[in-house]
Amino acid sequence: MKIRSLTVPRESWEEQLAIIMSTFSLPAELKLTICPECGAELEHINKEDIQDRIPYRTYENIKTVTHCKSCEKIFWIGSHIERMKKQLQRIQKTKL
Ligand SMILES: [Zn+2]
């Protein structure tokens, strides 16, 4: 069995990610289908069903809400997701 290894620099997580994405030809996308807390699958739910769990101003501005089947946490697509997508695209363009 052939074992592959990849050495990444310690200092910069962004450079580590750029190297990993480049080496394994990973796309710069956020699927947002797995719970970041427990790793279980997320499912879409109607925000109206959990209105009492979302801050009012956030509730008014979001469209997509997901729910973890395991730990029952909820997640929504907010401005932080757009920042993460832009950051990921920037990292993908990093010159190695
Ligand atoms: Zn979870």
Write up what this structure looks like.
The model has no long low-confidence stretch (mean pLDDT 91). This protein is of the alpha+beta class. A hairpin with a 5-residue loop joins strand 2 and strand 3. It has a 3-stranded antiparallel β-sheet, with no helix packed on it. It has a domain at 33-92. The protein contains 3 helices and 3 strands. Bound molecules: zinc ion.
What labels would you give this structure?
96 residues; alpha+beta; three-stranded antiparallel sheet; 3 helices; elongated; binds zinc ion
SSE layout:
Elements (H helix, E strand, L loop, with lengths): L12 H11 L18 E4 L10 H6 L3 E4 L5 E3 L2 H14 L4
Antiparallel strand pairs: 1-2, 2-3
The chain binds zinc ion.
Zinc ion binds next to loops.
In short:
The protein has a domain at 33-92. The chain has 3 helices and 3 strands; from the N terminus they run αβαββα.
